[in-house]
Design goal:
This protein is α+β, with helices and mostly antiparallel strands.
């Protein structure tokens, strides 16, 4: 086609592909769907006021936690991708259009020339005109054109097209003016530019375009992150000094201060401080004599001190006997364990290449894992010595760094092979601790020095990030999580990693710098799964969890701090994923023997598209701001849109011998509801919530009691039966209380079962219709021998709902559609995107994209 196509032709195309050939040549969009980017949009879109863009400063928009108060991402109305753009309620009255920064926070203006077309979709039948203006900054106009607007389609969306004939220009901002009409209920979506070079997405792009832009801005984003880090001592003055040195500032002064801090670290000998060794490994490779900086940013005296600390902090803990033990023997916590083992690998490589260290012999005392690591926290005797584990794994041989390095390379080959075949992680999707675990994996990928191990580490990161991508909406992880300490969650540490992969800001706090300076990046298939929420569809995830303990009595000597993980744990990570919500929980076999981590601060419940704070979460207690006591153990059953759960009456745990076993306790139980909902209603014993196109319902179940019939043998009131069926118990209308701030449902009986039902506008229509459907669902309490102890029989309102029988009286295996839950899955991953084979081959597939990963078995 040699000229601009007619509106009739344009509107005939499928909106999600928008493969429009406006000018000669083909477009890159013909084979790829368009997706939007939940991190990019708030940073680059704002409103027009009197025709002028109202952007916040770039320094503000590029912050990790930036919140755009001018516009909203509307997940309820989208023509292209997952969301459209609309003015925030506070901005509607003053706004008269949208402005989009084409160079974003880190890029360059776009070059345009010749016949150029801007097209997009707008939703509001009252808009009489749309004016497109091209700006070379925030105010200086290059050109403007009045768009032609097509008739509305069945959903009310109207395609607009503006045409330009341009000399060579650089365009920084594109404005979509609505004139005197103002914003009202206007939504904008699918904005694109078409010229002689093809089609380029603005608000919605192909994965190829998003990935290409992330690569093009990588250096600028790294530099910006380090610049921010250099300005604050958040998470440590040592970290700030490293950022200042990377920036090349006050080399001598900052080296001197860093040495002073490092000498204090050496004297304190706090080996188990998570960032210390990994920060020094980063400094060695990124700032020292082996870095790309010439001359090095670390002075020789500073580098020598770093090597001295790394040796002193690892010579005991880097015991070759540990490298030969099972990868499922985890000491203290999963992130601390990986910290020590990754440090052992990477420092072994450093020392085998350092002339002053390569011939040093490691003590290899063989006392057992954790020895030399936990001295600071376990020194409870007057002389500060550390309790010595009872192991005797010393083989009498002498080993140097090269032998240690080879042993740890083999260990990590096995580590990946085992987890691909059995499951990962114990600290599953922890909002807090995954920032450490992932940072250690990035450090291995960046600095391991073994090409085969680097490939496997990259493949393992691919798998870990696919697991995250398929179970999240707009950066918020749904489904079961472990060690979700102190918070009902929302955006978390994995969101920070994801933002950078998606072309957003980096971060040098904690240990995130390892991500910035690692060359790992998401393959396109992960981009696609992460961003194409509508295209993913509706699906179930039922994956193997790990964390069950091997029941070994007596505990072997030398492993006083160690968990023995059963790789075939009877734990299921279950989620029901839709474009509008994710509902999920972990289901444990009632006879599972837990480690102290597998039951720590579990997260389960409902998240919704459109607001990271819109969720229903079971807690012990919580506040409206999301602060919560999550340290409560629930037993649960989950099937599609239904979750039934209860504070566990019993569970069994085997902590390491030197870790205390706190007594089992009855804790307060509650459901966090929060304040982020569009609507909330109470009816028929249920609490109903609405966010965008997602609906939720919660009901706390307890039996009504007969105060006139006292059972002396149980010293309690009898159950009130349903008339005509003595097995059924009348359900109490309101066996819970609102917290004073009306954000938490607090249970009267801490062991009351809780039902959570979720739904979509696409399935139920409007919110009242969902309520009516839920109120018609089958909810029954069945008597057991002891009054007040019940079984639950429930069948939700969904068309494909299956009856669930949940025994809230004791520990038992629930029934779904008459069949007991199967806790021993054949495959680690059971969803639409990850496919595993027994030989360690993993295929990640979405549409025409496929990534094949290989994890060969390691012989002992």
């Amino acid at each position: 086609m040699s000229a601009i196509s007619s509106l009739t032709f344009i509107t005939g195309f499928k909106a999600r592909a928008l493969a429009v050939l406006f000018l000669a040549g083909t477009t890159s969009h013909a084979a790829e769907d368009l997706v939007d980017n939940w991190d990019d949009a708030p940073r680059v879109v704002t409103i027009l006021v009197d025709g002028k863009p109202k952007f916040d400063r770039v320094e503000t928009r590029s912050k990790q936690d930036y919140i755009n108060k001018q516009i909203v991402l509307d997940f309820t109305e989208a023509k292209v991708g997952a969301f459209s753009l609309a003015a925030a309620k506070e901005s509607v009255a003053k706004a008269d259009g949208f402005a989009i920064s084409l160079n974003g926070c880190w890029g360059n203006p776009w070059s345009m020339e010749g016949e150029t077309v801007v097209s997009g979709w707008i939703r509001n039948v009252e808009v009489p005109s749309v004016t497109i203006a091209l700006l070379n900054g925030l105010s200086e106009q290059i050109a403007s054109a009045t768009a032609t607007i097509a008739s509305a389609d069945a959903s009310g969306w109207r395609l607009f097209v503006a045409r330009f004939r341009l000399p060579p220009v650089s365009v920084a901002t594109l404005a979509v003016g609505l004139g005197e009409h103002g914003m009202g209920e206007v939504h904008l979506d699918g904005l694109q530019i078409h010229d002689a070079h093809g089609t380029k997405g603005i608000t919605d792009r192909t994965v190829t375009e998003w990935s290409r832009e992330a690569k093009s801005t990588l250096s600028a984003r790294i530099r910006a992150a380090v610049e921010v880090g250099a300005g604050t001592d958040f998470s440590g003055r040592d970290r700030q000094l490293l950022d200042l040195l990377w920036m090349g500032r006050d080399i001598a002064k900052n080296n001197a201060e860093l040495r002073e801090l490092l000498r204090a670290v050496l004297n304190e000998h706090n080996v188990n401080h998570l960032p210390t060794k990994m920060r020094l490994i980063y400094a060695y490779y990124q700032l020292g004599s082996r870095s790309s900086f010439k001359p090095a940013r670390l002075e020789p005296e500073t580098e020598a001190l770093i090597l001295e600390i790394l040796w002193e902090f690892t010579r005991i803990t880097n015991d070759i006997a540990i490298a030969r033990q099972s990868t499922w023997w985890i000491t203290a916590s999963e992130n601390h364990d990986l910290n020590e083992k990754a440090s052992a690998l990477l420092t072994s490589r450093i020392f085998m290449n350092e002339p002053m260290y390569r011939e040093r012999v490691y003590p290899d005392e063989g006392h057992g894992p954790g020895y030399g690591y936990w001295k600071a926290s376990l020194a409870d005797v007057s002389d500060g010595t550390e309790p010595t584990p009872g192991g005797n794994f010393k083989d009498g041989k002498q080993y140097r760094a090269a032998e240690h390095y080879a042993a740890w390379v083999k260990f990590f080959h096995e580590y990946y092979a085992e987890r691909v075949r059995h499951g990962f992680f114990v600290e599953n999707a922890s909002p807090i601790y995954m920032k450490y675990t992932l940072s250690f994996l990035h450090a291995i990928h960046a600095y391991c020095g073994n090409e085969a191990l680097k490939r496997e580490t990259g493949a393992f990161l691919d798998l870990a990030w696919t697991d995250w991508a398929e179970g999240q909406i707009a950066g918020v992880k749904g489904g079961p999580k472990t060690r979700s300490t102190h918070s009902v969650s929302g955006y978390d540490s994995m969101t920070i990693f994801a933002r950078f992969f998606l072309g957003g800001p980096g971060f040098t706090g904690q240990l995130y710098a390892h991500q910035l300076f690692d060359d790992y990046e998401w393959p396109d298939v992960i981009w696609d799964i992460a961003l194409d929420t509508p295209g993913r569809g509706v699906y179930s995830l039922r994956d193997r969890g790990v964390g069950e303990a091997v029941s070994v009595r007596p505990r072997p000597a030398g492993f006083e701090r160690t968990m023995f993980i059963n790789p075939d744990s009877r734990l299921i990570k279950s989620s029901w994923v839709t474009p509008d919500y994710i509902l999920g929980a972990q289901m444990d076999h009632p006879d599972a023997t837990h480690t102290q981590l597998s039951i720590a601060a579990r997260w389960q419940g409902l998240i919704c598209a459109g607001d990271p704070k819109a969720h229903l979460v079971t807690v012990s207690s919580a506040k409206a701001n999301g602060d919560a006591d999550m340290d409560i153990v629930f037993q649960s059953v989950h099937a599609r849109s239904t979750l039934i759960t209860q504070q566990a009456r019993r569970w069994f745990e085997i902590p390491p011998a030197w870790f205390g076993a706190p007594p089992l306790e009855q804790k307060p139980a509650a459901v966090f509801v929060g304040k982020a909902w569009d609507a909330i209603a109470e009816k028929g014993g249920w609490v109903f919530v609405k966010k965008g196109n997602a609906y939720g319902a919660v009901r706390v179940l307890a039996g009504a009691r007969d105060g006139e019939k006292r059972l002396t043998e149980f010293d309690m009131d009898d159950d009130l039966s349903v008339e005509g069926n003595s097995r059924l118990v009348q359900i109490a209308e309101h066996p819970w209380k609102w917290s004073p701030d009306h954000s938490v449902m607090m249970l009267d009986d801490v062991f009351s079962p809780i039902v959570v039902e979720a739904g979509r506008k696409a399935d139920y229509g409007d919110f009242p219709s969902f309520q009516t459907a839920v109120l018609s669902a089958t909810v029954e309490l069945l008597k057991t021998v002891v009054p007040g102890y019940y079984m639950v029989r429930y069948k939700g309102p969904a068309k494909d709902a299956e009856e669930i029988v949940f025994n809230a009286a004791t520990t038992d295996i629930p029934l779904i559609a008459g069949q007991p839950v199967n806790y021993q899955l054949d495959s680690v991953f059971n969803g639409p995107f990850i496919h595993t084979a027994p030989d360690g081959t993993v295929a990640i597939k979405k549409g025409l994209r496929q990534l094949v990963l290989h994890f060969p078995a390691i012989s002992k």
